[in-house]
Write a structure and sequence with these properties.
single chain; Quinone Oxidoreductase, Chain A, domain 1; Rossmann fold; 2 domains; 6-stranded parallel beta sheet
Length: 334
């Protein structure tokens, strides 16, 4: 029976601070022959995401840590090569959580069929994937509505750029911050943000006050740290915070102190809600219908940075923390 050779990325050691190439290793493995109720998938694109950094540490989190010497995992979109399960046939395009490898043998329950006519297929890792759904969930979490002024940090990233586009469709005034002048231009010209600023060129609190002199109603937090503190100052009474991520602290070896102005939570009667997108998986169909419609109608764009080859996957992941991506960072495997 035929066996399939596949390359995969394994965690060689646990990072200290920003990961380095030495924390990863590229290995070749031979997959066993397909058994009944199994599907062989060739991955076409894989996702690298900031949350994966937390899984590289030891200790419990909301997701299990990656194991040393074992392949990492994450979002992927691929094509069925062979199937011994009635649910799938060769040529079907599917998404899975078995990224960081070229081929995978999976059970039908771990695969999700997508429409191969929608291109590029990497959109199922970005605008129409968990990235887009994370942005959509965040806006629903605090009931973002027409007329709201929303500030999004990490706005040129995968989730931020989608959150901004979706908020504009809801009739919001959208403000974003990013780490370069080029990304600020991208937010205004490509994503339709009403205002944007480079957080590296001056204090966030000052630049946010200039962009929103009358304050903000909603803060979509992808960064944490100083930016969260600035947003607390800018939020109006009964403002809302979407706690989605805190990339500014993901590589810190010691936890940072919390915001010094947290008392605003009381005085302004603010609401802050944390979110994990998998808690909303029962509404994935609703997301796909709404946001898929926007994409087909040209109302939103799938913003992405594509890196070629599984041998470049670790570099792509590290690049997330060095500001090398605009939109979703994906690795093309074929």
């Amino acid at each position: 029976m035929k066996k399939t050779a596949s390359r995969e990325i394994r965690l060689a050691s646990r990072p200290s601070g920003i990961p380095t190439p030495a924390n990863f290793t590229l290995a070749q493995t031979e997959l066993k022959p397909l058994q009944d109720e199994e599907v062989l998938v060739r991955n076409l694109f894989m996702s690298v995401d900031p949350y994966m950094r937390g899984r590289m540490n030891e200790g419990k989190s909301y997701v299990p840590p990656f194991e040393l010497g074992k392949p990492l995992d994450g979002g992927a979109v691929g094509e069925v090569v062979e199937s011994r399960a009635k649910e799938f046939k060769p040529g079907d395009v599917v998404t899975s959580s078995f990224g960081w490898r070229e081929y995978v043998i999976a059970s039908p329950k771990d695969l999700h069929t997508v429409n191969s006519k929608i291109q590029p297929l990497s959109v199922y890792l970005g605008a129409l994937g968990m990235t887009g759904m994370t942005a959509w969930v965040g806006l629903n979490l605090v009931e973002v509505k027409a007329g709201d002024v929303i500030y999004i940090s990490g706005a040129a990233g995968a989730v931020g750029s989608m959150a901004g586009q979706l908020a504009k469709l809801r009739g919001c005034r959208v403000i974003g911050s990013a780490g370069s002048n080029e990304k600020v231009k991208f937010l205004k010209e490509k994503c339709g943000f009403d205002a944007a600023f480079n957080y590296k060129t001056g204090p966030v609190v000052k630049q946010l006050a200039e962009a929103a002199p009358d304050g903000i109603d909603v803060y979509f937090d992808n960064v944490g740290g100083e930016t969260l503190e600035a947003a607390l100052s800018a939020l109006r009474v009964h403002g809302r915070i979407i706690a989605c991520g805190g990339i500014s602290g993901y590589n810190e070896e010691q936890p940072r102190p919390g915001p010094s102005n947290l008392f605003y939570m009381i005085g302004k009667r603010l609401t802050m809600k944390g979110m994990i997108v998998r808690d909303w998986i029962d509404r994935q169909g609703e997301f796909e219908k709404e946001v898929g419609g926007y994409f087909r109608d040209g109302k939103i764009k799938n913003m992405e940075t594509v890196v070629n080859g599984i041998d470049k996957a670790a570099d792509a992941f590290i690049g997330l923390f060095l500001g090398k991506n605009v939109g979703k960072m994906v690795v093309k495997l074929v």
